[in-house]
Amino acid sequence: MEKILSLKNISKKYQAKNGEIIAIENISFDVEKGEFVSIIGPSGCGKSTLLSIISGLEEKNTGNIFIDNEEVIGLSPKIGYMLQKDSLLEWRTIYDNVIFGLEVKKIKNRENEEYVINLLKKYGLYEFKDKYPTQLSGGMRQRVALIRTLAIKPRILLLDEAFSALDYQTRIMVTNDIFQILKNEQITVLMVTHDISEGIF
Ligand SMILES: Nc1ncnc2c1ncn2[C@@H]1O[C@H](COP(=O)(O)OP(=O)(O)OP(=O)(O)O)[C@@H](O)[C@H]1O
Ligand SMILES: [Mg+2]
Question: Which one of 58, 90, 161, 184 is CB 3.0 to 4.6 Å from 84, fit for a cystine?
Fold first, then answer.
């Protein structure tokens, strides 16, 4: 198997009013290409901190991150990051939401737009492309958020409790959908959750 992501001795401290908080200390692990890794732990144990460090949005105090055996400093175009809140832009249509990342990265071209249109079609959202986020259900919104993240063709996807806002039944449905999408698109996934059953699933 091929190693895609490698973490070496990652630590992070936060300065708080009453002293330092060690959010994570000396974390090292490898993830292989195509693996689906669940990270489970109680609230406050440093899961979100770890993901935001991998994403490059948060700085680490010590350690190194390697993607495809190359050290990454800051943001990597190979990483997609999906948070608990879908943060769709309410004033943009579904289509304009899913191509948002392409616009930001200035990679909106015919090929990438066709890729997005195909994802919308494949996952039952194409007919909603001119609607607005408020007109969609929570599960549909999550799928839109996922397609927006996939639009930039990440090799590694970070999911931070991405489905916890959904009710149990919808979550089962959406996670099934989403796992299928991820498998089809051959993406390596690192998922954080405090829900043990979701992690096992
Ligand atoms: N910006 C910050 N400033 C100060 N302390 C922080 C900051 N962000 C996180 N922390 C602290 O770091 C620790 C880890 O937080 P983190 O958000 O990574 O936990 P978590 O495992 O994601 O928890 P949850 O399951 O509740 O989302 C906590 O003690 C938290 O209070
Ligand atoms: Mg968290």
Answer: 161
